[in-house]
Structure formats: structure tokens, C-alpha cells
Amino acid sequence: MRTFSRWMALAVLVGGPAAYAADRNDIELSKLGKPGENSARTGFSTDSDFRAFARTLGAMMTATNLTPPETLGHAGFAVGMELGVVGMPDEVKLPMVRALEGPALVPSIHVRKGLPFSIDVGARVGWLDRSNLFAATGEVKWAVNEGFIPWLPDIGLRAHVTHLLNTRDFHLTAGGLDVNVGKQFPLGGMISLTPYGGIDFVGVAAKSELLGFTPSGATGPLTVAAYEPVNGWDNINTRFYAGGRFIGGALQLGAEVSLSSQGTIQSIEGGPNNRALAPVFAFSTTLGLDF
Asked: What are the UniProt keywords, alphabetically (predicted)?
């Protein structure tokens, strides 16, 4: 028994670090620099860089909708495999283990269930390629008009919340409300095509844990600090999107393009909003079943 315990302890010591080894797209938040100082790379305060990173990562996590305004019906159910290809702006410092090469790939699984009164509920779990990061989303959609007035397009309202998972010293939550307009066109039998478009207002909240920073020259005591927290109500992205969905029997295909306008933020803490952030462009596609 004692020998077995020793082998178990050795397995934990050897296997533990490997099990939690960081991948190239994992977050190393300390790469932004010590909070409260100016970044030598960007010329902005490190707290401003933290806010810019949080807003950009929030735009990436919420870059996919892939559903028109119509609902599934109270007995309906849909499941889809999705892939988002998100272009991350070079102007924003991304504190990852290694520099991001090309667009970020975000595969996900999306499940939706229809309810009475033109309501859908859904859940999505996405993964950032070559990382240990996951994003979990919950959503509720209500079709304000769903063919009730024939000459009007379908109109839907969707509320959604996304939370970043599996991070050690960084917490991020994005919540939003979007307005979606579309129209279904029957192509014969059980085949239809639905073009749609909309606007999504997304607030991004983020905070860091206390991080340790070694002084310049590696002399002196280790300092501990956290970045200025980011509040969702004053950190809002505006996402414009358009797409189409094809249904043939139970098979569902879809594609969507989106552009998230990130606006401006403070370049230094307490200063004016004079730092413009580049928009985030995304292309997404889905393949699934609609019952």
C-alpha cells in the first residue's frame, strides 16, 4: 500500500503540470505590464490595454449568432456545429502565450429548444483553438412578429450572456441584447431560405486577480497588483451582422458575417475617451439538424 501511494504521488507530480500546461493561445495577463504604468509597446496605460483586450476578447466571444428571428415552435429542437473565424486587430495587445497567427478559430456546439408564445431558449459552448479557454453562452429569444402580419418581416429580440471559462487570473462576462430582422422564403416542399440581419449591443465586464510582477533588473521585492476592473455598462460593443439560413428537411446550413464596432476608450486612467479601437470582423458558419 505504501509503494502504491508513492507511485500515485509521483504520477501527480509528473502528470499534474502537463495536464494544466498552457497552450499557445492561452492568456498570460502579466504580459500587459504592471497595472498603473504606461506600456512601452503601445504608449498607453496598462489599464487601458487591459480594457482594450477585454473589449476585443468579448467581441470575439460574441461574434456568432447564426439564427434568424423566427423561432422553432413549442415542440421544436435544433442542434448545430458552428465555426467562427474572427479577425483580431493588430492594434490591440493580446497577452497570449504566443502571438496570435492569423484569425482566431472558435468552434462551438449550439443547442436550441422552442417554447410556447414564440420563445426559444438556447445554449452554446465554444472553444478558442489551441487554448484551454471555453466560453459558455445562455440565450433567450422572442419573436415579436413571426408571420402574424404577412407584409412585415419577422422580428426577433434576443438576450444573451457569455462567460469565459478555464482562466486562472482573469474573469470576463459579456451580456447583450440584439434586434434581428429576416424573412423566410419557401423554395418548395420542406426547403426554405431565410436571409436576415441585425444589430447587437454587447456590454463586456472584466477583472483580474492579483498578479505578481518582478521589478526591473530582477532586484527588490516582488510587487502584487491588479488591473482596473472593467464595467459592462460603460464598455459596450455594437455588432452589425447579416446572414442566411438554408433548411432542407431536417438539415440546416447557415453562414453569417459580422462587424463589431468597439468605439473609443481612455488612453490613460481618468483621461478622455481618445483611444479608438479597431473593429472586429468575423465570418461564421453552421451545419446542424432542425426538428
From this structure: Signal
